[in-house]
Amino acid sequence: QVQLVESGGGLVAAGGSLRLSCAASGRAFSSNAMGWFRQAPGEEREFVAALSRSGNNKYFQESAKGRFTISRDNAKNTVFLQMNSLKPEDTAVYYCAAKTGSRRDIYYITPLDYDYWGQGTQVTVTS
After folding, report:
1. What letter would DSSP give residue 34?
2. What is the C-alpha separation between 23 and 76, in angstroms, rounded?
3. What percent of the chain has pLDDT over 90?
4. Cross-strand partners of 19
5. Do the beta carbons of residue 122 and residue 9 sit within 8 Å?
6. pLDDT one-digit tens code per residue, 113-125
7. Torsion angle, CA of 106/111/117/120, rounded to 10 degrees?
8. Model pLDDT, residue 105
9. Is the dihedral of CA 57, 49, 75, 117 positive or negative?
10. Which of 37, 23, 26, 44 is closest to 107 using CA atoms?
Protein backbone atom coordinates (compact mmCIF):
# COMPACT_ATOMS: atom_id res chain seq x y z
CA GLN A 1 0.00 0.00 0.00
CA VAL A 2 1.08 3.54 -0.78
CA GLN A 3 -0.56 6.61 0.69
CA LEU A 4 -0.16 9.92 -1.13
CA VAL A 5 -0.98 13.35 0.29
CA GLU A 6 -0.79 16.45 -1.89
CA SER A 7 -0.33 19.97 -0.59
CA GLY A 8 0.61 23.40 -1.86
CA GLY A 9 -2.43 24.26 -3.91
CA GLY A 10 -4.18 27.59 -3.61
CA LEU A 11 -5.34 30.75 -5.29
CA VAL A 12 -2.83 32.66 -7.41
CA ALA A 13 -2.97 35.41 -10.01
CA ALA A 14 -2.02 34.68 -13.60
CA GLY A 15 1.74 34.77 -14.02
CA GLY A 16 2.33 33.57 -10.49
CA SER A 17 3.87 30.37 -9.18
CA LEU A 18 2.94 27.49 -6.93
CA ARG A 19 4.88 24.49 -5.72
CA LEU A 20 2.87 21.36 -5.15
CA SER A 21 4.19 18.61 -2.90
CA CYS A 22 3.15 14.99 -2.67
CA ALA A 23 4.25 13.09 0.41
CA ALA A 24 4.26 9.32 0.13
CA SER A 25 4.16 6.69 2.80
CA GLY A 26 4.02 2.93 2.69
CA ARG A 27 6.04 0.94 0.21
CA ALA A 28 9.54 2.08 -0.76
CA PHE A 29 9.13 5.44 -2.44
CA SER A 30 12.32 5.11 -4.44
CA SER A 31 10.89 2.13 -6.33
CA ASN A 32 7.94 4.16 -7.62
CA ALA A 33 7.61 6.16 -10.78
CA MET A 34 5.56 9.27 -10.04
CA GLY A 35 3.20 11.46 -11.98
CA TRP A 36 1.01 14.53 -11.72
CA PHE A 37 -2.41 14.79 -13.32
CA ARG A 38 -5.14 17.40 -13.16
CA GLN A 39 -8.88 17.55 -13.62
CA ALA A 40 -10.94 20.64 -14.29
CA PRO A 41 -14.71 20.68 -13.71
CA GLY A 42 -16.52 18.75 -16.42
CA GLU A 43 -13.27 17.57 -17.96
CA GLU A 44 -11.39 14.29 -18.09
CA ARG A 45 -8.38 13.80 -15.88
CA GLU A 46 -5.32 14.76 -17.91
CA PHE A 47 -1.63 14.11 -17.69
CA VAL A 48 0.64 16.95 -16.55
CA ALA A 49 4.10 15.57 -15.75
CA ALA A 50 5.87 12.29 -15.06
CA LEU A 51 9.15 11.26 -13.47
CA SER A 52 10.94 7.94 -13.55
CA ARG A 53 11.87 6.31 -10.29
CA SER A 54 15.52 7.08 -10.98
CA GLY A 55 14.70 10.74 -11.47
CA ASN A 56 16.69 10.66 -14.70
CA ASN A 57 13.77 10.83 -17.11
CA LYS A 58 10.78 13.12 -17.11
CA TYR A 59 8.04 14.15 -19.48
CA PHE A 60 5.54 17.00 -19.61
CA GLN A 61 2.25 17.77 -21.23
CA GLU A 62 2.85 20.19 -24.08
CA SER A 63 1.22 23.12 -22.31
CA ALA A 64 3.42 22.56 -19.24
CA LYS A 65 6.75 22.45 -21.05
CA GLY A 66 8.97 25.36 -20.10
CA ARG A 67 6.70 26.37 -17.23
CA PHE A 68 6.49 23.33 -14.93
CA THR A 69 9.22 21.17 -13.45
CA ILE A 70 8.93 17.86 -11.63
CA SER A 71 11.41 16.57 -9.09
CA ARG A 72 11.68 14.10 -6.25
CA ASP A 73 13.44 13.86 -2.92
CA ASN A 74 13.71 10.19 -2.06
CA ALA A 75 15.09 10.97 1.41
CA LYS A 76 11.83 12.79 2.17
CA ASN A 77 9.54 10.46 0.19
CA THR A 78 8.23 13.49 -1.66
CA VAL A 79 7.64 14.51 -5.26
CA PHE A 80 7.24 18.14 -6.28
CA LEU A 81 5.60 20.02 -9.10
CA GLN A 82 6.92 23.54 -9.50
CA MET A 83 4.51 25.58 -11.57
CA ASN A 84 5.57 28.95 -12.95
CA SER A 85 3.89 31.45 -15.27
CA LEU A 86 0.52 30.06 -14.30
CA LYS A 87 -2.48 30.66 -16.56
CA PRO A 88 -6.21 30.57 -15.83
CA GLU A 89 -6.43 27.39 -17.91
CA ASP A 90 -4.18 25.68 -15.35
CA THR A 91 -7.05 25.84 -12.88
CA ALA A 92 -7.90 22.30 -11.77
CA VAL A 93 -7.59 19.79 -9.00
CA TYR A 94 -4.09 18.38 -9.16
CA TYR A 95 -3.43 14.76 -8.26
CA CYS A 96 -0.19 12.90 -7.74
CA ALA A 97 0.06 9.24 -8.57
CA ALA A 98 2.49 6.42 -7.96
CA LYS A 99 3.36 3.40 -10.03
CA THR A 100 4.96 0.75 -7.88
CA GLY A 101 7.67 -1.62 -9.03
CA SER A 102 8.46 0.43 -12.10
CA ARG A 103 11.53 0.10 -14.22
CA ARG A 104 14.37 2.44 -13.32
CA ASP A 105 14.26 4.95 -16.17
CA ILE A 106 10.69 4.64 -17.41
CA TYR A 107 8.00 7.26 -16.92
CA TYR A 108 4.27 6.76 -17.40
CA ILE A 109 1.74 9.17 -18.85
CA THR A 110 -1.67 7.52 -18.71
CA PRO A 111 -3.84 7.26 -15.59
CA LEU A 112 -4.27 3.52 -16.01
CA ASP A 113 -0.51 3.05 -15.60
CA TYR A 114 -0.68 4.18 -11.98
CA ASP A 115 -1.54 2.13 -8.92
CA TYR A 116 -2.12 4.75 -6.23
CA TRP A 117 -3.56 8.25 -6.15
CA GLY A 118 -3.72 11.13 -3.72
CA GLN A 119 -6.86 13.00 -2.82
CA GLY A 120 -5.94 16.07 -4.88
CA THR A 121 -5.21 19.71 -4.19
CA GLN A 122 -7.07 22.62 -5.77
CA VAL A 123 -5.18 25.13 -7.90
CA THR A 124 -7.07 28.24 -8.97
CA VAL A 125 -5.47 30.82 -11.25
CA THR A 126 -7.26 34.14 -11.61
CA SER A 127 -6.98 36.36 -14.65
Report:
1. E
2. 8
3. 92
4. 82
5. yes
6. 999 999 999 999 9
7. 120
8. 93
9. negative
10. 37
Q: What is the pLDDT confidence band of residue 1, given thresholds at 50, 70 and 90?
A: confident
pLDDT in tens, 30-85: 999 999 999 999 999 999 999 999 999 999 999 999 999 999 999 999 999 999 99
Q: Which residues pair with 122 in a beta bridge?
A: 93
- Cα–Cα distance measured from residue 18 to residue 68, given in angstroms and rounded to the nearest whole number: 10
User: Are the C-beta atoms of residues 9 and 36 closer than 8 Å to each other?
Assistant: no
Q: Cα angle vertex 27, ends 57, 5, to 5°? A: 75
Length of the chain, in residues: 127
Handedness of CA 83, 37, 72, 55 (dihedral sign): negative
Nearest to 100 by CA among 29, 51, 23, 4: 29
